[in-house]
């Protein structure tokens, strides 16, 4: 180790002789005993960021070093204290996270310049480059876009007048849908939208949308209309032109240029009078004229010209593009070893545009130039006379408008003799007789004699010297061993220096000589001042300086040093030049600079010139006026005040200010100009109670600068009193937090006195420590940066121009720092659940802890929970949101849900709010009925019983079921027989089935929204033999036909021959006719015998009861035989009353198969719309008849998704024989074709459909809903008419108790027409309705039915019978009364049947018999 140390020492000594005196020792590799350089730097540095208020911000900082380090952050040059900061947090990797950015008009704690610093203990500190954090402004539109008219192929521009920071958060929407941008639709850097080469697809409503931090702001929707090009010549006109722009190398820019005119102009671009070539992709033309330049280079800087021309005209617009280059290092400082008292130089060479400014930083602190720290050769740092404290990290930091960079180097101070293990042997004694043999103005020559004891031959010497009054020693070594003199240069004239000499031998450093003090001589040999120094401004940012050679140069002039400074700055800057002129660039606009010149020769710097000054040219201001305020004086005037732009951004003398103001957000504005010395103006003759927007622009001789933001204020509705001070505020409330107190108040009770604002005073123990002024509209304020656990007194007083009013006082103690915030927040209020669909509910609420505008500016969030009580053990579901609304989806239909909301902010949460309830809408059942079983009825093999259970997912109240059955399981659905079930019954009988036949059954549930899916087919086979006790007529009706189907079903009797049909018709007609005649005669006789009042009242009640299907009686009591006479077909149907006491769907007889459904003539549409209001009463009456007659409903349903709206119409038919007898035939809408999934009759004659009649009835207590019931045919007496009604495909009617009001928004019901002759029904005559009030025009004389084939023709009645027309009328039948109501009706009813009624009935009967005879004879 001794040999190793000796070798190291020898190498150091040799190095000191070989290197220049002012150079340090640089080394890459030292022996293990020498301290090593520690790698220390930033792998990721923070970057400039634009964030939104209330949102998070992240500034990255990653440090690379093998040693342990500590990261801190600076903001605006001051270290941040992050330990107790809840919003700002230092991440583990060194990055800075701001969870919620705070930014307001008077409080901007987060906006500024940030810098990351890293420190290693006992080594030093480094700093990253700086990054600016900017906060985007509040989204608002200074003006709204305007509607436009554009021709095909032309261009249009919509303006989006927002601040520049928000352009990146903006987008455009067309018809409230996001607009996709392309080469034809372009958003400009200003936010404006360009629509080029317009087409019809571009027409619509446009709006500009700005979204920041969850706050969405939209402009007004404006309409763009596209019209055809007329071909007329139109003058060329710029819609938007390029403007001067500054950008950075590597970025992209867009130069807008939109031209309109006819013929369509041709647009091209030029750069510095050279036509631009777009072929290389560097330049790209967009939207018909705008130019995009990608990956900017320095060569792109210059003047761009947009040229537009057509056959008639030409235009040119120019704009300057200035390209900036961020600073870049050409040479970086390097790590350096040095000994104490040595001189070192850190080199740093940078380039950039504009020219970067360079500063040096040592261990995080800026190096201030002095006698020992000098900036030489433009940017290099020289350190003279090193001491141990100079050790650490040095950084060269360069910055210009395009960015900033940094580079660091480590300096290690070595001890003398370091690296050795200790020399063996004596060292030299002190050198003797040290004297200054030559003394000059800037150098001194020292000599000495060797030490008395050298203890070796190779002795070298080091001279240490220092300027009197300083503690820094510098060192100069002799050039070779044995030399005993040295010349010390670069001294200061007329200054005292102290010198001492030390000898070195192979064993180390010897003793020091005694100190010698020597004074340099005054300056006599340096150059004189440079004559004729001139400084002339050449532009707003440059000054040219020129001078001449000094008259007394005292030798050759080596160089000149220009020392300059800006007015108002403390430090001077200097630059070395060799010529006699120099132009300074990158200077501040309209700023005065002072310059002086020092010439250098071999002796050093000469005499400085006197200062000369020059001022750069003025320019337009680069900043708007500051602190613009608006004070409402009265109902018609306001005072606007402002401050000038910052002095360094005025760029000239402010000659005037322009004040622009407008009402609200209108585009048109007025302006007022005041002198530049005036900082206020009065705006009068304004409108009362009107909101005005004001902004101010500063102007120089060069033009107007940027305008301030719009300031909005509203004039008073009436003139208030300002002759006295305001009264005391009516209330003051305080809410203390840990470091803040939230103050809220209400204005004085006397509202007739003007209040200009409020003054809040606060302090510990006294309210007079600090004061804050707020606007008169403000009602709360948060006092920040308070001490925890401190007693504060707060005062509040209103003020106006007269003075300050009486204060109100309140006190509060801030919360302790150590105690977490456990006070729960106020729960949300006003929770509402708005049902949107069957599975979606929108929940909204308000938050009382937010300001009145309910804007969320902090990091709070809301938790919404919901559940249903079915089943009872259902758990809550939750969702989080940061807004005051939440859309809950995926809910069950027709289900009641309860909702509540909780707010959370940090570690604080509120209790759950009061619950809100909402029931989702119904929807069609999503599952089919389950557990479908089919069993045979005992004793009746042709009757089966179908049982089932409701669907598991009914999605609403089940209003009915549809039973489908067929003998062919693979048949199309529309070929199955359909049997509707009313209400929520779970069992049903089906009769008259064929024996020994396999049937397949399917079920379908229905609610108010429609029908659900079908169940799986269930198979059942009827027995082979009938029971022995079956009635003869039943047996006769079930004689099998050639096609194997029972004859009891008329619709299926297609195999019977013509002969058999004829005989069967005669037999049935004779039997039924005789039976009906006898029944009517007997009934009429019995009715005439009932003469007592009580019997007559009972008859009226019976009539009313029979008119409603809701009357609960045994179906056997209401089962008279009904004879339906049909041409070529006869059917005797037993009628059963529906067992459901409260049916929802109307009991209606319909055909068993689709063969009985007849399409209706297309004339129905016009007829229906003429009588849309006439449907409800007639529907009730027909539904009532169906219920009274007990028909089992059988409905043929279409299977399309939206059934046609039902329409019912009636056509009166006057008998040729009896004008009292009328038949009304009801038509229906034509069924769609089978391809659409509808049941359709294939071979039925065309039916005639006529408008329906209408009759108001005072007795009706039934109202008919949207789908209207069908009813059976009925006979009426006198003014009553007979209706034959069948249901439209899929229209199941619903009856509800009500007032009988008509729903004018629904279509009237639809009735089907039998395919051939009208069906005739013999029934008990109905009572004439009271007070018929319907009036209708006469119907045309139109045949009711067409004849059907063969020579036989049926008789049809004409409306023209007896020479008069009877208006069609709808029968309105009241609903069944309750038991109590029935009793009351029996008491109150008047006799309804008189002697003349019986006579009319007999005449009616005669007419029926004549019609019967006419049919049988044919």
Folded structure, characterized:
- Strands 2, 5, 6, 9, 10 and 11 form a six-stranded mixed beta sheet that branches. Strands 12, 14, 15, 18, 19 and 20 form a six-stranded mixed beta sheet that branches. Strands 22, 25, 26, 29, 30 and 33 form a six-stranded mixed beta sheet that branches.
- It contains eight helices and 93 strands.
- With about 1400 residues, it is mainly beta.
Features:
8 helices; mainly beta; 1418 residues; six-stranded mixed β-sheet; disordered N terminus; 36% strand; 9% helix
Topology of helices and strands:
Elements: H1 2-18, E1 41-44, E2 49-51, E3 57-59, E4 62-64, E5 70-75, E6 78-79, E7 88-90, E8 96-98, E9 112-120, E10 124-127, E11 131-135, E12 148-151, E13 156-158, E14 170-174, E15 177-178, E16 185-187, E17 193-195, E18 204-212, E19 215-218, E20 222-227, E21 234-240, E22 245-248, E23 253-255, E24 258-262, E25 266-271, E26 274-275, E27 283-286, E28 290-293, E29 302-309, E30 314-331, E31 336-339, E32 344-346, E33 349-353, E34 357-362, E35 365-366, E36 373-376, E37 380-383, E38 392-400, E39 403-414, E40 432-439, E41 444-449, E42 460-467, E43 474-477, E44 485-488, E45 496-505, E46 508-512, E47 516-519, E48 534-539, E49 542-546, E50 559-566, E51 573-577, E52 581-584, E53 592-601, E54 604-605, E55 612-615, E56 626-632, E57 638-643, E58 656-663, E59 670-675, E60 680-683, E61 691-700, E62 703-707, E63 711-714, E64 731-736, E65 741-746, E66 757-764, E67 770-775, E68 780-783, E69 791-799, E70 808-813, E71 829-835, E72 841-846, E73 861-868, E74 877-881, E75 885-888, E76 896-905, E77 908-909, E78 916-919, E79 930-937, ...
Parallel strand pairs: 2-11, 12-20, 22-30, 31-39, 90-92
Antiparallel strand pairs: 1-4, 3-8, 5-6, 5-9, 7-8, 9-10, 9-11, 13-17, 14-15, 14-18, 16-17, 18-19, 18-20, 21-24, 23-28, 25-26, 25-29, 27-28, 29-30, 30-33, 32-37, 34-35, 34-38, 36-37, 38-39, 40-41, 41-44, 42-43, 42-45, 45-46, 45-47, 48-49, 49-52, 50-51, 50-53, 53-54, 53-55, 56-57, 57-60, 58-59, ...
């Amino acid at each position: 180790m001794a040999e190793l140390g000796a070798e190291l020492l020898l190498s150091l000594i040799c190095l000191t002789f070989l290197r220049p005196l002012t150079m340090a020792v640089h080394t890459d590799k030292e022996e293990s005993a020498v301290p090593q350089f520690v790698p220390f730097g930033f792998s990721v540095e923070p970057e400039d960021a634009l964030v939104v208020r209330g949102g998070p911000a992240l500034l990255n900082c990653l440090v690379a070093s093998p040693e342990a380090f500590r990261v801190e952050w600076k903001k605006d040059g001051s270290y941040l204290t992050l330990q107790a900061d809840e919003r700002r947090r230092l991440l583990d990797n060194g990055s800075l996270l701001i969870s919620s950015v705070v930014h307001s008009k008077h409080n901007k704690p987060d906006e500024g310049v940030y810098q990351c610093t890293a420190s290693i203990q006992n080594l030093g500190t480094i700093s990253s480059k700086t990054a600016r954090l900017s906060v985007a402004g509040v989204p608002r539109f200074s003006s709204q876009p305007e509607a436009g008219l554009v021709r095909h192929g032309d261009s249009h521009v919509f303006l989006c007048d927002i601040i520049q920071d928000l352009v990146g958060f903006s987008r455009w929407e067309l018809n409230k849908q996001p607009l996709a941008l392309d080469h034809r639709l372009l958003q400009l850097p200003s936010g404006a939208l360009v629509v080029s080469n317009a087409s019809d697809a571009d027409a619509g409503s446009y709006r500009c949308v700005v979204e920041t931090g969850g706050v969405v702001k939209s402009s007004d929707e404006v309409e763009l209309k596209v019209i055809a090009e007329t071909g007329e010549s139109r003058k060329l006109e710029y819609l938007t032109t390029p403007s001067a722009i500054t950008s950075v190398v590597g970025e992209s820019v867009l130069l807008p240029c939109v031209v309109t005119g006819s013929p369509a102009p041709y647009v091209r671009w030029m750069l510095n009078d050279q036509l631009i070539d777009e072929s290389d992709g560097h330049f790209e033309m967009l939207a018909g004229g705008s130019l995009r330049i990608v990956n900017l280079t320095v060569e792109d800087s210059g003047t761009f010209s947009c040229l537009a021309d057509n056959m008639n005209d030409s235009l040119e617009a120019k704009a300057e593009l200035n390209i900036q280059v961020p600073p870049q290092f050409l040479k970086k400082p390097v790590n350096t070893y040095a000994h104490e008292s040595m001189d070192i130089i850190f080199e740093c060479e940078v380039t950039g545009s504009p020219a970067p400014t360079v500063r040096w930083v040592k261990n995080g602190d800026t190096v201030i130039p002095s006698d020992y720290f000098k900036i030489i050769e433009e940017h290099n740092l020289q350190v003279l006379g090193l001491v141990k404290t100079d050790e650490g990290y040095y950084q060269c930091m360069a910055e210009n408008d395009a960015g900033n960079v940094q580079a660091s180097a480590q300096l290690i101070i070595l001890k003398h003799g370091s690296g050795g293990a200790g020399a063996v042997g004596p060292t030299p004694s002190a050198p003797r007789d040290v004297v200054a043999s030559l003394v000059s103005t800037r150098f001194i020559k020292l000599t000495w004699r060797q030490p008395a004891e050298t203890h070796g031959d190779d002795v070298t010497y080091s001279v240490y010297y220092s300027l009197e009054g300083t503690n820094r020693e510098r060192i100069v070594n002799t050039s070779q061993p044995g030399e005993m003199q040295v010349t010390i240069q670069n001294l200061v004239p007329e200054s005292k220096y102290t010198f001492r000499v030390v000898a070195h031998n192979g064993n180390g450093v010897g003793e020091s000589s005694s100190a010698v003090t020597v004074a340099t001589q005054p300056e006599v040999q340096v150059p004189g001042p440079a004559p004729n120094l001139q400084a002339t401004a050449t532009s707003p940012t440059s000054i040219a300086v020129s001078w001449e050679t000094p008259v007394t140069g005292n030798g050759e002039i080596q160089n000149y040093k220009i020392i300059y400074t800006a007015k108002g700055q403390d430090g001077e800057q200097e630059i070395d030049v060799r010529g006699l002129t120099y132009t300074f660039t990158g200077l501040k606009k309209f700023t005065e600079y002072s310059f002086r010149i020092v010439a250098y020769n071999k002796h050093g710097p000469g005499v400085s010139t006197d200062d000369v000054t020059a001022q750069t040219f003025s320019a337009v201001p680069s900043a708007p006026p500051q602190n613009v305020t608006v004070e409402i004086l009265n109902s018609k005037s306001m005072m606007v005040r402002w401050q000038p732009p910052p002095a360094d951004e005025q760029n000239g003398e402010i000659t005037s200010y322009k004040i622009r103001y407008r009402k609200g957000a209108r585009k048109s504005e007025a302006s007022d100009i005041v002198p530049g010395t005036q900082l206020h103006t009065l705006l009068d003759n304004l409108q009362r109670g009107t909101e005005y927007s004001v902004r101010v622009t500063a102007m120089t001789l060069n033009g107007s600068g940027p305008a301030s933001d719009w300031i909005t204020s509203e004039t008073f509705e009436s003139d208030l009193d300002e002759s006295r001070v305001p009264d005391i505020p009516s209330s003051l409330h305080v809410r203390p937090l840990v470091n803040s107190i939230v103050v809220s108040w209400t204005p004085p009770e006397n509202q007739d006195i003007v209040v200009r604002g409020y003054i809040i005073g606060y302090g510990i123990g006294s309210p007079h420590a600090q004061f804050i002024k707020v606007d008169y509209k403000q009602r709360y304020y948060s006092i920040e940066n308070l001490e925890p656990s401190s007693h504060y007194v707060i005062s509040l007083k209103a003020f106006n121009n007269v003075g300050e009013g009486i204060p109100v006082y309140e006190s509060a103690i801030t919360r302790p720092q150590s105690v977490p915030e456990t006070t729960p927040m106020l729960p949300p209020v006003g929770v509402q659940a708005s049902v949107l669909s069957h599975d979606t509910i929108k929940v909204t609420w308000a938050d009382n802890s937010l300001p009145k505008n309910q804007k969320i500016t902090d990091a709070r969030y809301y938790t919404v929970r919901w559940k249903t009580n079915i089943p009872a053990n259902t758990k809550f579901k939750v969702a989080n949101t940061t807004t005051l609304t939440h859309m809950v989806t995926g809910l069950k239909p027709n289900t009641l849900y309860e909702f509540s909301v909780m707010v959370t902010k940090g570690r604080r949460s509120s209790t759950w709010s009061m619950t809100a309830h909402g029931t989702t809408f119904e929807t069609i059942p999503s599952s089919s009925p389950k557990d479908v079983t089919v069993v045979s009825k005992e004793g009746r093999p042709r009757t089966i019983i179908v049982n089932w259970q409701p669907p598991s997912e009914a999605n609403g109240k089940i209003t009915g079921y549809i039973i489908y059955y067929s003998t062919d399981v693979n048949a199309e659905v529309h070929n199955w027989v359909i049997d509707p079930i009313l209400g929520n019954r779970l069992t049903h009988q089906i009769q008259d089935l064929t024996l020994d036949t396999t049937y397949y059954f399917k079920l379908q549930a229905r609610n108010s929204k429609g029908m659900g899916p079908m169940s799986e087919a269930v198979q059942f086979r009827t027995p082979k033999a009938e029971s022995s006790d079956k009635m003869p007529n039943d047996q006769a009706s079930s004689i099998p036909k050639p096609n194997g189907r029972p004859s009891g079903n008329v619709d299926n009797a297609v195999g019977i021959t013509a002969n058999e049909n004829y005989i069967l018709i005669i037999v049935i007609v004779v039997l039924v006719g005789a039976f009906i005649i006898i029944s009517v005669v007997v009934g009429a006789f019995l009715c005439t015998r009932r003469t007592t009042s009580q019997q007559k009242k009972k008859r009226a009640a019976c009539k009313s009861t029979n008119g409603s299907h809701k009357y609960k009686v045994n179906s056997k009591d209401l089962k008279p035989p009904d004879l339906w006479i049909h041409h070529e077909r006869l059917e005797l149907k037993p009628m059963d009353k529906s067992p459901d006491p409260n049916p929802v769907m109307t009991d209606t007889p319909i055909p068993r198969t689709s063969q009985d459904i007849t399409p209706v003539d297309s004339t129905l549409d016009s007829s229906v719309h003429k009588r849309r209001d006439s449907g409800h009463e007639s529907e009730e009456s027909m539904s009532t008849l169906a219920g009274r007659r007990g028909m089992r409903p059988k409905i043929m349903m279409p299977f399309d998704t939206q059934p046609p709206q039902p329409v019912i119409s009636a056509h009166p038919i006057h008998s040729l024989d009896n004008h009292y007898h009328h038949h009304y035939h009801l038509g229906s809408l034509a069924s769609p074709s089978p391809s659409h999934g509808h049941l359709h009759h294939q071979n039925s004659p065309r039916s005639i459909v006529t408008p329906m009649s209408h009759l108001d009835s005072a007795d009706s207590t039934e109202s008919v809903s949207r789908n209207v019931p069908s009813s059976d045919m009925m006979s009426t007496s006198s003014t009553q008419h007979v209706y034959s009604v069948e249901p439209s495909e899929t229209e199941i009617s619903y009856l509800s108790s009500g007032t009988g009001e008509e729903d004018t928004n629904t279509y009237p019901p639809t009735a089907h027409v039998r395919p051939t002759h009208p069906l005739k029904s013999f029934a008990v005559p109905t009572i004439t309705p009271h007070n018929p009030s319907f009036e209708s025009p006469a119907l045309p004389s139109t045949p009711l039915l067409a004849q059907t084939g063969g020579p036989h023709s049926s008789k049809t009645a004409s409306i023209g019978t007896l020479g008069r027309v009877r208006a069609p009328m709808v029968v309105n039948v009241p609903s069944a009364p309750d038991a109590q109501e029935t009793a009351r009706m029996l008491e109150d009813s008047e006799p309804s049947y008189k002697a003349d009624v019986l006579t009319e009935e007999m005449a009616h009967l005669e007419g029926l018999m004549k019609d019967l005879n006419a049919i049988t004879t044919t």
